[in-house]
Amino acid sequence: MSPQRRGTLTRVPPLNLGNHQPRTPLNADQAWQVTAGRAAGTVLFFDFDGTLAPVDDDPTAVRPAPNALAAIEALAPVVQRIAIVSARPVDFLRDRLGELSGVDLYGLYGLEHSHSGGETVTEPTALPWVPTMAELADLARAELPPGTLVEFKRLSVALHWRTAPQLGGTVQQWGQAQADRLGLRVQAGRMVLELKPPVDRDKGMVIGEVVQGATGAWYFGDDVSDIKAFAALRARAEADPDFFGVCVAVANPETGQEVANAADLTIESPAALGDFLTRALTRLP
């Protein structure tokens, strides 16, 4: 099926994950109509980088699109929960999102979390890996070529080559070798390779846990790690025919096609997502 334009929204073919067939209506208006009838039991999930905020050459300079932030604040009292599920640490998310009430933060793919402004809780099995990650960050700065940006996140290390695309192969080879040496897990992303502890936490697991008891959920993401979250919504819908899940991709030139192919709907940018959510407010009770 060819994509059909709907303003800033594109309908894309749904991903068929075996038995996890999507149960989503064919356009966003219909999806919000269904959500309106179950808003009090619906969870809205958002990735941060590339979804709520445009990607920047300097990851420390990233800020959310103002209209997306305003829409989330307005939506929080309308739905059951809003959760940000990101590769960023919780402290980073809290700093960028401000004092949003009723919003849960899941950082480092779920290794950290904070509920509605509460204290940050860290997955206990990940804590012993903090010294390893610090040493790995120092080693990366010493051994990787200039142009590589090393982002130390306490429980993970992200290796960026956005400002030096020609280094992609070198950085990925080095990162994979270190992961093999130390027994770490690797998460690929948009011109970034992230090394993480061998702890069973990812976005799909977070979503799978949070949606237990919910009547519906939307997930908005832009990168390959978000495909696991999409799959978690598919699995929940397969297990419960009354559950209503919608997977939305935010387009980008690097991983956008792969993520769009796994989604029900595609939105053009974080700013367009803000407009989309603002319009949704008029459709919800």
CATH superfamily of the largest domain: HAD superfamily/HAD-like
Shape: globular
> Whole-Å distance between the termini?
33 Å
Instruction: Please count the beta strands (DSSP E, at least 2 residues each).
Output: 14
Order of helices and strands: EEHEHEHEEEHEEHEEHEHEHEH
Number of domains: 2
Query: Can you count the helices?
Result: 9
Strand count, sense and barrel status of the largest sheet are:
10 strands, mixed
InterPro entries: HAD-like_sf, HAD_sf, OTSB-like, Trehalose_PPase
EC number: 3.1.3.12
Organism: Micromonospora lupini str. Lupac 08
Cofactor: Mg(2+)
What does this entry look like structurally?
It is an enzyme of class 3 (hydrolase). One of its GO terms (molecular function) is trehalose-phosphatase activity. This is Trehalose 6-phosphate phosphatase. By secondary structure, the chain is of the alpha/beta class. It folds into two domains: about 5-125 and about 200-280, Rossmann fold (3-Layer(aba) Sandwich); about 125-195, Trehalose-6-phosphate phosphatase related protein, domain 2 (Alpha-Beta Plaits, 2-Layer Sandwich). The chain contains nine helices and 14 strands. The strands form two sheets. The protein has a ten-stranded mixed beta sheet with strand order 1-2-14-13-12-3-4-5-6-7, with helices on both faces. Strands 8-9-11-10 form a four-stranded antiparallel beta sheet, with helices on one face. It is globular and about 55 Å long. It starts with a strand and ends with a helix.
